[in-house]
Protein backbone atom coordinates (compact mmCIF):
# COMPACT_ATOMS: atom_id res chain seq x y z
CA UNK A 1 0.00 0.00 0.00
CA UNK A 2 2.81 2.39 0.81
CA UNK A 3 4.47 1.59 -2.51
CA UNK A 4 1.45 2.74 -4.53
CA UNK A 5 1.07 5.84 -2.38
CA UNK A 6 4.73 6.70 -2.94
CA UNK A 7 4.32 6.13 -6.69
CA UNK A 8 1.39 8.56 -6.73
CA UNK A 9 3.53 11.14 -4.94
CA UNK A 10 6.36 10.56 -7.43
CA UNK A 11 4.03 10.90 -10.41
CA UNK A 12 2.53 14.03 -8.89
CA UNK A 13 6.01 15.44 -8.32
CA UNK A 14 6.89 14.66 -11.95
CA UNK A 15 3.90 16.56 -13.32
CA UNK A 16 4.43 19.47 -10.94
CA UNK A 17 8.02 19.86 -12.12
CA UNK A 18 7.02 19.61 -15.79
CA UNK A 19 4.29 22.23 -15.28
CA UNK A 20 6.73 24.52 -13.51
CA UNK A 21 9.18 24.23 -16.39
CA UNK A 22 6.66 24.81 -19.17
CA UNK A 23 4.25 27.33 -17.67
CA UNK A 24 6.65 29.87 -16.29
CA UNK A 25 7.02 32.88 -18.55
CA UNK A 26 10.46 33.64 -17.14
CA UNK A 27 12.43 30.50 -16.35
CA UNK A 28 14.79 32.49 -14.09
CA UNK A 29 12.80 33.21 -10.97
CA UNK A 30 13.37 33.08 -7.25
CA UNK A 31 11.07 30.05 -6.97
CA UNK A 32 13.01 26.81 -6.62
CA UNK A 33 10.81 23.78 -7.21
CA UNK A 34 13.13 21.31 -5.51
CA UNK A 35 13.28 23.43 -2.35
CA UNK A 36 9.50 23.72 -2.36
CA UNK A 37 8.98 19.97 -2.77
CA UNK A 38 11.58 19.14 -0.10
CA UNK A 39 9.97 21.57 2.32
CA UNK A 40 6.43 20.33 1.70
CA UNK A 41 7.38 16.62 1.92
CA UNK A 42 9.34 17.25 5.13
CA UNK A 43 6.48 19.16 6.78
CA UNK A 44 3.73 16.78 5.58
CA UNK A 45 5.47 13.52 6.53
CA UNK A 46 2.87 11.25 8.14
CA UNK A 47 5.48 9.59 10.38
CA UNK A 48 6.14 12.94 12.10
CA UNK A 49 2.78 14.66 12.73
CA UNK A 50 4.36 17.29 15.03
CA UNK A 51 5.99 18.94 11.98
CA UNK A 52 2.65 20.08 10.52
CA UNK A 53 1.85 22.74 13.10
CA UNK A 54 4.95 24.93 12.91
CA UNK A 55 5.68 24.53 9.19
CA UNK A 56 9.38 25.20 8.82
CA UNK A 57 10.96 27.04 5.94
CA UNK A 58 13.59 25.03 4.09
CA UNK A 59 16.49 27.09 5.47
CA UNK A 60 15.24 26.77 9.07
CA UNK A 61 15.67 22.98 9.03
CA UNK A 62 18.75 21.67 10.83
CA UNK A 63 19.64 19.01 8.28
CA UNK A 64 19.53 21.58 5.45
CA UNK A 65 21.88 23.92 7.29
CA UNK A 66 24.30 21.06 7.96
CA UNK A 67 24.28 20.07 4.29
CA UNK A 68 24.81 23.66 3.17
CA UNK A 69 27.81 23.94 5.50
CA UNK A 70 29.30 20.76 4.05
CA UNK A 71 28.48 21.52 0.41
CA UNK A 72 27.48 25.12 -0.25
CA UNK A 73 25.34 25.82 -3.28
CA UNK A 74 26.88 27.29 -6.40
CA UNK A 75 26.23 30.92 -7.21
CA UNK A 76 23.97 30.07 -10.15
CA UNK A 77 21.63 27.09 -9.81
CA UNK A 78 21.78 24.48 -12.53
CA UNK A 79 18.22 25.38 -13.54
CA UNK A 80 19.45 28.83 -14.62
CA UNK A 81 22.05 27.31 -16.91
CA UNK A 82 19.88 24.61 -18.51
CA UNK A 83 17.36 24.93 -21.27
CA UNK A 84 13.86 23.63 -20.64
CA UNK A 85 14.38 20.64 -22.92
CA UNK A 86 17.53 19.59 -21.09
CA UNK A 87 15.82 19.90 -17.71
CA UNK A 88 12.87 17.83 -18.93
CA UNK A 89 15.29 15.13 -20.15
CA UNK A 90 17.05 15.03 -16.77
CA UNK A 91 13.76 14.74 -14.88
CA UNK A 92 12.38 12.08 -17.22
CA UNK A 93 15.59 10.03 -17.13
CA UNK A 94 15.71 10.15 -13.34
CA UNK A 95 12.08 9.14 -12.86
CA UNK A 96 12.15 6.41 -15.52
CA UNK A 97 15.27 4.98 -13.91
CA UNK A 98 13.62 5.14 -10.50
CA UNK A 99 10.51 3.33 -11.72
CA UNK A 100 12.59 0.65 -13.43
CA UNK A 101 14.84 0.11 -10.40
CA UNK A 102 11.81 -0.33 -8.13
CA UNK A 103 10.31 -3.17 -10.19
CA UNK A 104 10.81 -6.41 -8.21
CA UNK A 105 11.60 -8.64 -11.20
CA UNK A 106 14.35 -6.28 -12.35
CA UNK A 107 15.74 -6.04 -8.83
CA UNK A 108 16.24 -9.81 -8.90
CA UNK A 109 18.26 -9.49 -12.12
CA UNK A 110 20.31 -6.62 -10.73
CA UNK A 111 21.13 -8.47 -7.51
CA UNK A 112 22.04 -11.58 -9.54
CA UNK A 113 24.57 -9.67 -11.64
CA UNK A 114 25.92 -7.83 -8.60
CA UNK A 115 26.66 -11.13 -6.86
CA UNK A 116 28.27 -12.57 -10.02
CA UNK A 117 30.53 -9.54 -10.39
CA UNK A 118 31.35 -9.55 -6.69
CA UNK A 119 32.34 -13.23 -6.78
CA UNK A 120 34.57 -12.67 -9.82
CA UNK A 121 36.10 -9.50 -8.40
CA UNK A 122 34.96 -7.34 -11.31
CA UNK A 123 33.87 -3.86 -10.35
CA UNK A 124 32.62 -2.77 -13.78
CA UNK A 125 31.61 -5.27 -16.47
CA UNK A 126 33.82 -5.11 -19.57
CA UNK A 127 31.86 -6.16 -22.62
CA UNK A 128 34.54 -6.13 -25.30
CA UNK A 129 38.24 -6.14 -24.41
CA UNK A 130 39.33 -5.33 -27.98
CA UNK A 131 37.63 -1.92 -27.90
CA UNK A 132 39.79 -0.62 -25.06
CA UNK A 133 42.50 1.77 -26.16
CA UNK A 134 46.06 1.32 -24.96
CA UNK A 135 46.06 4.34 -22.62
CA UNK A 136 42.91 3.13 -20.84
CA UNK A 137 44.15 -0.45 -20.71
CA UNK A 138 47.43 0.52 -19.01
CA UNK A 139 45.91 2.05 -15.87
CA UNK A 140 46.95 0.29 -12.62
CA UNK A 141 43.40 -0.82 -11.88
CA UNK A 142 43.00 -2.45 -15.30
CA UNK A 143 46.39 -4.16 -15.01
CA UNK A 144 45.24 -5.84 -11.80
CA UNK A 145 41.86 -6.78 -13.31
CA UNK A 146 43.52 -8.10 -16.48
CA UNK A 147 45.88 -10.26 -14.40
CA UNK A 148 42.94 -11.63 -12.42
CA UNK A 149 41.02 -12.44 -15.60
CA UNK A 150 44.10 -13.93 -17.26
CA UNK A 151 44.71 -16.18 -14.26
CA UNK A 152 41.14 -17.45 -14.58
CA UNK A 153 41.63 -18.15 -18.28
CA UNK A 154 39.17 -15.54 -19.53
CA UNK A 155 41.58 -13.50 -21.65
CA UNK A 156 45.12 -13.73 -22.92
CA UNK A 157 46.97 -10.49 -22.21
CA UNK A 158 49.71 -11.11 -24.79
CA UNK A 159 47.28 -11.58 -27.67
CA UNK A 160 44.82 -8.85 -26.74
CA UNK A 161 44.84 -6.34 -29.62
CA UNK A 162 44.85 -2.65 -28.86
CA UNK A 163 43.41 0.00 -31.12
UniProtKB/TrEMBL annotation:
Claim: Glycoprotein is one of the keywords in the record: no
Residues that span the membrane, as ranges: 6-24
Ranges for region Disordered: 137-163
Bias type Polar residues, positions: 153-163
Database matches in InterPro entries: IQCK
Keyword Coiled coil among UniProt keywords: no
Keywords: Membrane, Transmembrane, Transmembrane helix
Protein's name according to its UniProt entry: IQ domain-containing protein K-like
Biological source species: Diabrotica virgifera virgifera (western corn rootworm)
Name of the coding gene: LOC114330514
